[in-house]
Write a structure and sequence with these properties.
- By secondary structure, the chain is an alpha/beta fold.
- The protein has 16 helices and 16 strands.
- The protein has an eight-stranded mixed sheet with strand order 3-4-5-2-6-7-1-8, sandwiched between helices.
Length: 425
């Protein structure tokens, strides 16, 4: 693409820039059908910052307006300023994406765009959702719906006005948040859903921006939401919160002076397809008593010999003091496969006398006291922690990574301490 652009003159470049089907990403092309095979009413685009959501929404509106002279389109944003500065006058807004000869006239005083063929788009905001009472439309574009102050009321009012033409439709472009309206739209069978990460549109973004946000926020809660476009849920009865984990995060463990390091293993009961994963988590204790979670090497689908080799490899890599293993699921077998992988590994078997929740509760209190830190980001592990409730399950499954974490932190905090030996990672 870069080589092609360098060969174009100004006129050719302008023509290519506005030839959206040629330059569009798959997630920017309107889906033909919803998942249930029927025609969609709502096209929901969930994406990270800079993923091309605005361009996709603007191009959809452009196509509607240029192919239907009777089109009446609602442009809905959080505020009038945001509709104008992003959806209409922005770099990827409606005025910028049209070729000069087809560009609509923007009448700011009337808050409307008019195309030469007679199509019209009007501006509405979530600040004044009553303004949607009365007008009727054949199409609508809702931008950044997840941050609208009156999201439900505004969206509901829009639905009553979306009643012109044979097939009125709307596109919603937003960075996701776990609000009720977004969840309803995802569950609605008339919704066609597409997702996109910031990474897929990196060619059109500043390399400095991409490098900065990925290195600073990659894998974190805010990064997964704002970069990857994921909906990050919160569980009311969870022992950990995502905000709490973010406050416990430090840089990767390159220069940490630790007095003891352990690798903890929560072995699965079976190696069959679909069985629980083998939790493998390493943690270390500093001289001041602070515990640092160092690595999550958990794996699924391996034989006992396979996960034993993974655990031993992590033990060697970190020069750990011991390897802690839960013995409730065949303790002798667990120790045997680990020793078979490396006879030098000091294996310490632990029998769980209490349920998962009661074992995890004192460890979660250590997090609240800021006595446990995460040296890096561990998305899969942190998902299990923040979705683990009093039922002892995470999303209906055994929290294997979290179990291994609990064994590791407990061994470094509540168990008898071995003689310290200082090492620098």
């Amino acid at each position: 693409m870069a080589e092609l652009l360098l060969t174009l003159n100004k006129t050719e470049f302008e023509r290519l820039r506005t030839d959206f089907p040629f330059v569009a990403h798959p997630h920017q092309i309107p889906p033909q059908h919803a998942d249930n095979g029927g025609d969609w009413r709502t096209w929901l685009i969930l994406g990270g910052r800079g993923a091309g959501k605005t361009r996709a929404g603007a191009e959809w509106v452009r196509n509607v307006a240029l192919t239907d002279s009777k089109a009446r389109i609602a442009l809905v944003g959080e505020t009038e300023h945001e509709v104008r500065s992003v959806m209409i006058e922005g770099v990827s807004g409606l005025l910028a994406i049209h070729q000069r000869g087809e560009r609509p006239e923007w009448m700011a005083s009337r808050r409307r765009l008019e195309w030469k063929n007679g199509a019209v788009a009007e501006v509405f905001t979530a600040e004044n959702y009553e303004g949607l009472r009365g007008p009727q439309f054949s199409a609508a574009w809702c931008d950044e719906l997840a941050k609208w102050r009156h999201a439900e009321a505004t969206f509901d009012m829009l639905q009553f006005g979306l009643r012109l033409g044979e097939r009125p439709r709307q596109v919603v472009t937003t960075t996701p948040r776990p609000i009720a309206l977004i969840k309803k739209l995802i569950a609605d069978p008339s919704t066609a859903l597409t997702r996109a990460s910031t990474r897929v549109n990196a060619f059109n973004l500043s390399p400095v921006f991409v490098e900065h946000v990925l290195s600073r926020y990659g894998g974190t809660r805010i990064g997964r939401q704002e970069i990857d476009g994921e909906i990050i849920e919160e569980r009311a009865d969870a022992l950990w919160t995502r905000a709490g984990l973010e406050s416990c995060r430090v840089a990767a463990a390159n220069e940490l002076s630790l007095t003891r390091i352990v690798v903890a293993v929560d072995p699965p009961a079976s190696s069959k397809k679909g069985a629980d994963a083998c939790g493998i988590v390493a943690a270390g204790r500093a001289a001041d008593g602070t515990i640092y979670v160092l690595e999550d090497a958990s794996v699924a689908g391996l034989t006992p010999q396979g996960w034993a080799m993974k655990a031993v490899a992590l033990w060697r890599k970190l020069k750990a003091d011991s390897l802690i293993a839960e013995a409730n699921q065949g303790g002798d077998m667990v120790k045997a496969v680990i020793v078979e992988a490396d006879r030098e590994v000091p294996v310490v078997l632990k029998h769980a006398m209490r349920g998962k929740y009661h074992r995890a509760e004192p460890v979660s209190q250590l997090y609240e006291q800021r006595r446990v830190k995460h040296a890096g980001v561990f998305p899969a592990l942190e998902d299990e922690m923040c979705d683990f409730g009093i039922d002892g399950l995470t999303s209906g499954k055994s929290p294997d990574r979290m179990d291994a974490l609990v064994w590791a932190v407990s061994a470094l905090t509540f168990a008898a301490r071995a003689e310290p030996r200082i090492r620098v990672l």
